[in-house]
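Exercise 3.2. Students should predict the tertiary structure of the chain below and write it as structure tokens, then compare their answer with the key that follows.

Predict this chain's 3D structure.
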Amino acid sequence: MIGASIDQLESLARALGQTSTDIIDANGDAQQVAGNAVAQMNDIAEATRASIEAAMSELVAAIGRSRSELAGVDWTGPNRTTFETHYYDFDAAMTSAQTNTNETFSNLKVTIAQMGEQIEAYAGEIRAALDAAAQSATSMSNAVTTQQANLEAAMSGMTVG
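Answer key:
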């Protein structure tokens, strides 16, 4: 054997070529996962906000219907005053809850956007590292293929006998 077996070099070159392809595929997968993560966080936050707002709207509507019915009722006295006082307290609490919900989810959007920027930066670092790894695997494969060609050339010039 002169430096290496041609068959082994051929097998190694194929393996390195496949490694390079696998790295490129993994890089694409990593980029997609990073992009999907941010989109999913946004979707979950929006669905949560919508669910909370729907529940609050149902409560406001139910109490509003009671308030509307009250307008048609001939009712006076301290209990009516108590009802109206608590209605206004309820209305203020729901307004506060809506304001808090809006602020919280607005802040959450900012946080998700910041996380998205960090994930994108990370994805860029991964992309660069995997690109470098793929280039290295390709260079190693090329070196092996060149060595194989050199051996074949050297062996074809040899004569037996």
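Discussion points: Helices lie at 6-71, 78-156. The mean pLDDT is 87.
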